[in-house]
Amino acid sequence: MKIVTWNVNSIRLRIDLLERLTDEMAPDVVCLQETKCPDDLFPHEALTRLGWEHVACHGQKGYNGVAILSRRPLREVRTQAWCERPDCRHIIAEVDGMEVHSLYIPAGGDEPDPAKNPKFANKLRFLDELTEWFAATYGPRDPLVLAGDFNVAPLPTDVWDHKKLLKVVTHTPMETTRLALLQQTLDWVDTTRAFVPADEHVFTWWSYRAADWRGANKGRRLDHVWVTPALAPRLTGWEVHVDARDWPQPSDHAPVAAVLAD
DNA sequence: ATGACGATTCAAAATCGA
Fold first, then answer.
1. Can you give the CATH number for the domain in which A87 is found?
2. Are the CB atoms for A2 and A28 separated by under 8 Å?
């Protein structure tokens, strides 16, 4: 069972890249973020042609949007709203005895000060609400997968320069401490870091503004697949499909995979 | 320090991303 998460940055614009992802990564489940597509315009027919017969989507016009694509049937599809906002950022479905969550945590704007920047305040509240909800709703023995664009780079090696980014949104202590609290709720296993030592850099996002993204390599690890301890013994592999950042008209995020034994 | 890019939207310039 291979689970991929990808911030696609427009599902309609990048449907051909989703075909390439399907071919090159051969996932069983794909969690998408930033689909930027209302549900009535979601490209179901194109996805069916790619073999994605089971699709759950939760989208709106222009912004946000999440989806789950699956080879096998999805059950109990539902969505979650946060911070009393209409944003489409969280969809949940059961597949093969697991509950899969596709999650898009807010970016948070530029200024990392909740008193000055309402978007950053909203991001912190979003993280706090998630933490309270997971702690109240589930236990570590529930078989859960939490995958998505968390918009937080938790470890010093999850950014290209830890010191330079401490005051940059995605890597501030206000965000990383909150993400750590979320991780503690169910003793979530960060699947990429189950394989890559904490002193090694891993990135999943590179800005569109870099002239030479690969050469400069000023990346951040914003995309994550977490599993509960119930699923952790089945974890057998990981991948960041970095080459996807070089596909024609790419997303600025690379797909991230976790592999679980069947 | 600024801007660099890219997607979307009542279709031109603004907003958002991170």
1. 3.60.10.10
2. yes
